[in-house]
Amino acid sequence: MIYYICCCVIGMCIASFINVVIIRIPRGEDFVLGRSHCDYCGKEIVWYDLIPVLSYLMLKGRCRYCRNKISIRSFFIEIFGGIIGVFCFFRFGFCDEMICIFLIAMLLLALAMIDLDTMTIPDGLNVSIFLVCFVLVILREMNILESIIGMFCISLPMFLLNLVIPNSFGGGDIKLMFVSGMILGWKYSLLAIFIAIFIAGIYCIYLILKRKVNKKAHIAFGPFLSIGIFTSLCYGQEIVSWYLNLLM
Q1: How many CA atoms are closer than 13 Å to the CA of 196, on its beta-carbon side?
Q2: Distance between CA atoms of 61 and 146, rounded to whole angstroms?
Q3: Which residue among 34, 43, 47, 157 has its CA within the 20 to 30 Å range from the CA of 137?
Q4: Using CA atoms, how far apart are residues 181 and 149, in angstroms rounded to an integer?
Q5: pTM (two decimals)
Q6: Is 220 exposed, middle or buried (0-12, 13-18, 19+ CB in 10 A)?
Q7: 178 Cβ partners below 8 Å, 6+ apart?
C-alpha cells in the first residue's frame, strides 16, 4: 500500500509539471525555469499553493490573490497522473520498464492536451517520446528490424495518404506513429492505429449526430493516437492473443 501511495503522489506531482508544459509550450514560454504565476493577475504563486490536488481544494479552485477561477482541467490532470502512476505500478511493478512507460504516458498526456487546444503536436514532445522509447527498446532487448518496421508500417502510409489527400493527417500525428513504432513494432503499431481510428470514429459519429461539427471538419487525432499507443504498450500482447483466438 505504501508503494501505491508513493506512486500516486509522484504521479500527481509529475502531472502538475505536465500542466505547466501544456499551458506554456503553445505560448512559447519557458516551462523549466519560469516561476508559476496566475494567468489573470500575474502574481507569482507561492510554493504552498502548488501542492498537487490539495492546493486546488484548499483554494476552492480560485487564485489566492485575484479570486479568479483556476481551470478545473488542471485539477483533473493531476488526479489522472496519480491514477496512471498507480496503474503502471500495478501493471509492471517497480522497475525501469515501469518508469519508462509512465514517462511515455505523461508525455502522451501533454501531447494530447496541446493537440486538443491548438490542433498541433510540438516536435519537442515527439523527440522526448522517441528518447524514452529508445531506452525502452534497449531494456526490452527488442529486435532492431522489428523496431524499424514498426517505425514505418503506419507512419509511411499516413505520409503517402497525406500526399494524395492533403491534410488527411497532421504532421505531428505521422511523427508520433513514427517514434512510437520503435517500441510497438509492427503488430502493436497496427493495434494502436486501429484503436485510435475506432474511438475517433465513434467520437465523430457522436459529434455529427449532435450537429456539433460538419462532416468535413477536422478533429485533433493526437488524443486518440495516445490512447491507442498506451493501450498497446500495456496490453498489446493480450489483445492480439485474444483476437487471434477468436479467429481460430
Answers
A1: 25
A2: 48
A3: 157
A4: 8
A5: 0.92
A6: buried
A7: 151, 152, 155
Taking residue 206's Cβ as centre, other Cβ atoms within 10 Å add up to 11
Taking each helix axis from N to C end, the angle separating 144-153 and 155-164, rounded to the nearest 10 degrees, works out to 20
pLDDT score of 170: 87
The DSSP string of 131-146 is HHHHHHHHHHT--HHH
70: DSSP letter:
P
Q: Report d(CA 222, CA 109) in Å as an integer.
A: 10
Give the residue among 133, 120, 154, 136 at the shortest CA–CA distance from 28. Answer: 120
- Cβ distance 79 to 105 under 8 Å? no
Measured distance CA(157)–CA(217) in Å, rounded: 22
Cβ neighbors of 191 (< 8 A, separation 6 or more) are: 184, 228, 231, 232, 236, 239, 240
Q: How many CB atoms lie within 10 A of CB 27?
A: 9
The least confident of 34-38, 102-106, 155-159 is: 34-38
β-strand partners of 37: 44
- Among residues of the chain, what percentage have pLDDT more than 90? 63
Single-letter amino acid, residue 171:
G
Give the residues across from 62 on adjacent strands: 69
Can you list the pairs that 133-138 forms with residues at least 24 positions away whose Cβ atoms lie under 8 Å? 133/104, 133/179, 133/180, 133/182, 133/183, 134/182, 135/100, 136/97, 136/100, 136/101, 136/104, 136/183, 137/182, 137/183
